[in-house]
Amino acid sequence: MNDKNYIPGLVQALLTAIDHQDWESLSKLLSADTIYEVSGFPRFEEKSAVMDYYENTRPIKSGIHTIESIITDGDRGVCCGHFVGVKKDGESVDLLFADEISFENLKIKQRRVYFCQPEY
Questions:
Q1: Total of domains in the chain
Q2: Of 68, 103, 110, 112, which has the fewest beta carbons less than 10 angstroms from its beta carbon?
Q3: Residue 2 has what pLDDT?
């Protein structure tokens, strides 16, 4: 697909599903053979591994992603923004993030998540 106009909507849908812990919607956005890389975790291959991460392993209890920019190129996009939340252990989280996401047939084929804690 060469029309990159769908990417911002899919990125927003992805982050909204994560923020609302709507795992059914998240699952529908992922390709069966998706590859997922999150800083500090092993690489996840296949949808089932990604879903297990969100349902059982992810250290975040709750939070909200705020998108500051999305840049697209064909079936790829980069999203940058801010995440504020709470870990399962009660610790507050305030991070900047950047995602590299590629799409295939309107599904997420690969996602790389980078984050850093800003010094305010």
A1: 1
A2: 68
A3: 47
